[in-house]
């Protein structure tokens, strides 16, 4: 088993979209789906190129209402490369040929997509093409394709056509196809420096320019060919037709190099100028490829790990790290972009940014903390927008939107199409105010790992305080309960958006939200101590806070209401216990896939709001984010008697009542059972690992990968099974591996030091890099050990 190669044999039209998503190549700046070079959007293939932060808004009319959506734009297709034999009328289309061999190979280690095909036409001419492409991880603006073309049993004249195609719409998600989807205006296209081509487009609302410039070189018998060509401009598409003669059994090499710039790039004059310059001075395919592979090697040195597990676990973990780094990479650092939940791999959820960061940043903190910092700044730069959203609701502080895109406006759709019934209905999931708590949690985690006080002083503290201000303004005092409450929200389980038969959106006292709000106030008070008196005074004044508000936060943090049922089982929200039990067995018999119960029940004129049925982990999120010690302490602070014994009661209660309609759900399942039922945890870990690879939701991966779930599978290995927790300036380790793993090697960053950790059955060895001024404290099980820069410690493990 090769842990780095994802291979597909034969053509498979039904799963082409899935392959395209999983074979996407990118570098954190741009990403291009693994569509065939010769293909176009035809219902089977869907070429797509996406730019980090490349959004555009369009208005559409739905059910008599004008709605506006912001989408991650599908930009011009730079892949276009095709051929025809001179006497043939049609351009190359594999579906019209007799396919003798087809293999598609994603080389994860080197960031290459390779397609090997052999086919014959209706005149029995047999041809083979090996196509290799990459999107450079070295130079964020460059991408290249190389074709090794061989006429196996014939000789003759062929035409190679290379194009840049601007006639592109956002058509990747069927549900959105009735909405307006033409985002691009063609500004210019043409030829430069004799035989190179270019295309300049601009989005019609956000006015982002993208320029693509391209050159094509041909080699025969190791010599560069001086070919005849023609330039063809048809409606937004520029093509170069190259005339060649091919000889039987001899190879013709065609190399297409493309430079892509946008007006969002830093340090540029104008995108087209830069794209043309890059092509003029561009290196050969092989030189570009060498540098690209070197950059991937550097990343793998850091992100790769080892553990002793047979099977394809490691291959899929590599695939997940690969897609994470293709969505956000060192090229992302310093840019004003966030991480779209579905990667830069498709158009699902319109490329919006949700709370999924909560499942991504903890992993990045330990491997590329500068990247987390940059992604947190995406939120910081939208603090004013979040404040405006709070004001609009009559609230204070910063209320970040559930779905975020370009400028921090709420991008959640107002209407949702139920594909089961074909009906549009209101979408109230925007009430997920807990997204703010995820941002706060991520800020705090980043701080715990890096100890970066300057970041906290300038960015982190202000966000934490503004979010606290917001939560303090939505907390209301209930004198009957003598508790603070948070009303009319939606929890992480998006199924429950209102009470049965209620017209009003929202549910009250979502336990997860309330618990996290209490946690938030505690951290906000702590951060005010950490940043020093001068900054504290500045921030209090800037945010119009005073000692009274701070002590009110402290009071709320002790008195938030958490609804409980019997046996320490936390009610997902107030009144949850009154809902009906759902007929899980009956519906599993009736429907093949009941993950999206909300749509199924809605199409039956029923509502999931009526039932104890969750889409994904909600209460269970608490056991995902916090250790039992932290939970017991925090519930104690809130005045609730919660013991570690109550945890399994909650897990056993909610797991059978969850449909796993989100890929994030399996992650939490695996995590929360890691200590008590290791074999369950391993099972769900594997299910999570398969989410995109097997497209377990039945069609959603083709529209974009599920980045939160991908990153967290790696995090389960990195933090969950190793018991890695950062708390109060200590890096705690408490390994508890499933039986399939008996040793593991990891690289981690913590507080200025790079650590190499080797877990073995009887010992754990930790080597610290040099380069930091301070020693760090490692906590192993219950013992604390000081580790100095450059030192190695070996801790015996008694089983
Ligand atoms: C999940 C959300 C998630 C979103 C984007 C939804 O299906 O319910 O929790 O944030 O997808 O991944």
Per CATH, the superfamily of the domain at 70-301 is: Glycoside hydrolase, family 65, N-terminal domain
- The CATH architecture of the domain at 70-301 can be given as Distorted Sandwich
* Structure class: alpha+beta
The hetero compounds bound to this protein are: beta-D-glucopyranose
3D shape: globular
Enter the CATH topology name of the domain at 70-301: Beta-galactosidase, Chain A, domain 5
Helix content: 25-40%
Task: State the name of the first-level CATH class of the domain at 70-301.
Answer: Mainly Beta
Q: Rounded to an integer, what's the Rg over CA atoms?
A: 27 Å
The average pLDDT score comes to: 96
Percent of residues in beta strands?
Answer: 25-35%
Number of helices: 20
Biggest sheet details: 10 strands, antiparallel
Binding site for substrate: 355-356, 615-616
Domain Glycoside hydrolase family 65 C-terminal: 726-786
GO molecular function, one term: carbohydrate binding
Domain Glycoside hydrolase family 65 central catalytic: 319-714
Describe the structure.
With 799 residues, the protein is α+β, with helices and mostly antiparallel strands. The chain has a domain at 70-301: Distorted Sandwich (Beta-galactosidase, Chain A, domain 5), CATH 2.70.98.40. The chain contains 20 helices and 32 strands. The strands form 8 sheets. Strands 1, 8, 9, 10, 11, 13, 14, 15, 16 and 19 form a 10-stranded antiparallel sheet that branches. Strands 20-27-28-29-32 form a 5-stranded antiparallel sheet, with no helix packed on it. Helix 6 packs across helix 9 (453-474) and helix 19 (678-693) packs antiparallel against helix 20. It is globular, with a radius of gyration of 27 Å. The active site is at residue 494. Substrate binds at residues 355-356, 615-616. This is Trehalose 6-phosphate phosphorylase. Residues 726-786 form the Glycoside hydrolase family 65 C-terminal domain.
């Amino acid at each position: 088993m090769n842990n780095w190669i994802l291979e597909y044999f034969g053509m498979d039209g039904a799963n082409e979209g899935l392959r395209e998503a999983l074979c996407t190549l990118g570098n954190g700046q741009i990403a291009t789906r693994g569509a065939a070079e010769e293909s176009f959007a035809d219902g089977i293939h869907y070429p797509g190129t996406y730019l980090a932060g490349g959004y555009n808004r369009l208005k559409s009319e739905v059910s008599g209402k004008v709605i506006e959506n912001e989408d991650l734009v599908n930009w011009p297709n730079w892949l276009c490369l095709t051929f025809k034999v001179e006497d043939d009328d049609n351009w190359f289309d594999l579906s019209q040929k007799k396919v003798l061999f087809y293999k598609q190979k994603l080389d994860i280690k080197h960031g290459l997509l390779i397609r090997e095909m052999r086919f014959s036409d209706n005149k029995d001419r047999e041809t083979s093409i090996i196509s290799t492409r990459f999107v450079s991880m070295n130079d964020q603006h460059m991408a290249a394709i190389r074709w090794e073309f061989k006429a196996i049993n014939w000789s003759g004249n062929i035409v190679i056509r290379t194009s840049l195609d601007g006639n592109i719409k956002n058509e990747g998600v069927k549900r959105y196809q009735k909405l307006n989807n033409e985002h691009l205006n063609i500004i210019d296209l043409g030829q430069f420096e004799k035989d190179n081509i270019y295309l300049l487009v601009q989005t019609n609302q956000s006015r982002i320019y993208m320029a693509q410039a391209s050159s094509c070189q041909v080699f025969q018998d190791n010599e560069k060919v001086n070919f005849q060509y023609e330039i063809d401009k048809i409606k937004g598409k520029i093509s170069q037709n190259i005339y060649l003669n091919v000889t039987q059994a001899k190879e013709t090499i065609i190399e297409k190099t493309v430079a892509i710039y946008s007006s969002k790039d830093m340090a540029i004059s104008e995108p087209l100028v830069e794209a043309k310059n890059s092509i003029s001075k561009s290196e050969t395919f092989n030189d570009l490829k060498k540098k690209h592979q070197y950059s991937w090697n550097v990343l793998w040195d850091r992100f790769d790990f080892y553990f002793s597990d047979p099977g394809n676990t490691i291959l899929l973990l590599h695939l997940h790290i690969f897609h994470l780094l293709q969505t956000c990479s060192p090229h992302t650092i310093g840019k004003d972009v966030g991480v779209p939940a579905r990667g830069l791999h498709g158009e699902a959820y319109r490329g919006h940014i949700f709370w999924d960061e909560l499942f991504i940043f903890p992993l990045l903190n330990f491997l590329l903390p500068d990247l987390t910092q940059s992604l947190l700044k995406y939120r910081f730069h939208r603090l004013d927008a979040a404040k405006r959203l709070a004001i609009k609701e009559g609230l204070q502080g910063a209320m970040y939107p559930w779905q975020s895109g370009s400028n921090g406006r709420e991008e959640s759709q107002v209407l949702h199409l139920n594909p089961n019934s074909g009906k549009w209905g209101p979408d109230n999931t925007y009430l997920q105010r807990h997204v703010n708590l995820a941002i706060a949690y991520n800020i705090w985690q980043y701080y715990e790992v890096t100890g970066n006080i300057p970041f906290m002083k300038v960015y982190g503290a202000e966000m934490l305080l503004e979010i606290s201000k917001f939560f303090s303004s939505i907390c209301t005092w209930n004198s009957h309960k003598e508790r603070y409450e948070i009303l009319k929200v939606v929890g992480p389980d998006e199924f429950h958006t209102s009470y049965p038969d209620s017209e009003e959106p929202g549910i009250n006292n979502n336990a997860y939200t309330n618990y996290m709000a209490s946690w938030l106030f505690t951290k906000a008070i702590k951060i005010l101590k950490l940043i020093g008196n001068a900054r504290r005074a500045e921030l209090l004044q800037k945010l119009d806070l005073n000692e009274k508000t701070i002590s009110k936060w402290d009071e709320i943090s002790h008195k938030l209401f958490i609804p409980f049922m019997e046996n320490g089982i936390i009610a997902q929200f107030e009144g949850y216990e009154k809902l009906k039990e759902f007929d899980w067995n009956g519906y599993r018999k009736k429907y093949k896939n009941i993950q999206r119960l909300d749509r199924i029940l809605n199409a039956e004129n029923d509502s999931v709001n009526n039932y104890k049925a969750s889409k994904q982990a909600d209460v269970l999120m608490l056991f995902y984010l916090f250790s039992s010690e932290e939970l017991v302490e925090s519930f104690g602070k809130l005045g609730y008697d919660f013991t570690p014994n109550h945890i399994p009661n909650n897990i056993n209660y909610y797991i059978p009542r969850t449909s796993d309609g989100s890929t994030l759900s399996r992650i939490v399942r695996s995590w929360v059972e890691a200590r008590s039922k290791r074999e369950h945890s391993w099972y769900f870990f594997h299910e999570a690992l398969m989410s995109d690879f097997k497209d377990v939701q039945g069609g959603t991966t083709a529209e974009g990968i599920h980045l939160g779930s991908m990153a967290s599978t790696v995090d389960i290995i990195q933090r969950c099974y190793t018991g890695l927790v950062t708390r109060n300036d200590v890096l705690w380790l408490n390994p508890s591996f499933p039986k399939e793993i008996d040793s593991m090697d990891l690289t981690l960053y913590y507080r200025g030091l790079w650590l190499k950790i080797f877990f073995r059955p009887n010992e754990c060895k930790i080597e610290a890099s040099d380069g930091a001024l301070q020693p760090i404290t490692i906590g192993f099980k219950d013992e604390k050990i000081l580790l100095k820069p450059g030192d190695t410690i070996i801790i015996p493990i008694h089983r």
